[in-house]
């Protein structure tokens, strides 16, 4: 494993970049957000994720790129939730109205500590104090990236807290398997029968609805070009009603003779094809990223779960171990 200084935050703290490699796969992770900064497969001349060669874009248009976001990923309506009979007022960092990805100082914006490393694995850790972003309980979180035969990149997230709190982490990489300017030629498959309808501010309206007959039906492979010009996609696809003990296949993404099978323990998958991106800093391939340059497939609990008792619960009890596993497996396929 190699380690180097990637840049310096405005407050003077260094951001490190670590690289691990095995089984023909190489992953680079930076301490800011425990973010997957680069991912390469031997024999493929382009990166498989969107990222930047410099730190500065991660503080602007690259916010959340490859990050481990939490302590509560996705949105919480009006930054409010009830827990143990009391009303919590959480940070409202989305348009001053809602919480997004744990608030303005959520885990995806924090500079994690390097906790452990081997040639094919590295672990980062962070401590979120009690009251941080409005959440009760001091929380310890550890994210471990490991390269497995296949090859595959496995991310395991562990967390504990000393008070009852909410906990829902997600890995936020934008994938692009063929190196093109957009993911239009990618094919996506997700075996979800239902999704969460949302309002204009992307807050779930209530109960899941069938994907059948909608632009969110990915049960058979869908060429993304046929969906990108229609209604905007930024939705949770409902895979289950609870977290699984072992990861199972939740999505397949294919393009340019390469396939990625995504397996996860989580009951939801937020699908977001980078609708907001506009050209800014140069990316890993030397060019800025535009709209639909990548697609995020975020394994997590359902959004706004603290405000919906019928959703999979985001509560974490004192001493209870939160464990999430997500595996990104790659193999070559015939082009076409």
What does this structure look like?
This protein has 336 residues and is mostly beta strands. It has one domain: Beta-galactosidase, Chain A, domain 5. It has one helix and 27 strands. The strands form seven sheets. The chain has a nine-stranded antiparallel beta sheet with strand order 10-11-12-13-27-23-22-17-20. Strands 16-25-24-21-18-19 form a six-stranded antiparallel beta sheet, with no helix packed on it. A four-stranded antiparallel beta sheet has the order 1-2-3-4, with no helix packed on it. Strand 1 and strand 2 form a beta hairpin. The longest helix is centred in the last third of the chain and has 4 residues. The radius of gyration is 19 Å and the shape is globular. The model has no long low-confidence stretch (mean pLDDT 97). It comes from Paracoccus simplex. One of its GO terms (molecular function) is isomerase activity. Pathway: Carbohydrate metabolism; hexose metabolism. It is an enzyme of class 5 (isomerase). Keywords: Carbohydrate metabolism, Isomerase.
What's the SSE blueprint?
Elements: E1 2-8, E2 14-22, E3 25-30, E4 35-41, E5 68-69, E6 75-76, E7 80-83, E8 86-89, E9 99-100, E10 113-118, E11 121-128, E12 139-148, E13 152-161, E14 165-166, E15 170-171, E16 174-175, E17 187-189, E18 194-195, E19 209-210, E20 222-223, H1 225-228, E21 235-238, E22 248-255, E23 258-264, E24 268-272, E25 295-300, E26 315-316, E27 322-332
Antiparallel strand pairs: 1-2, 2-3, 3-4, 5-15, 6-9, 7-8, 10-11, 11-12, 12-13, 13-27, 14-26, 16-25, 17-20, 17-22, 18-19, 18-21, 21-24, 22-23, 23-27, 24-25
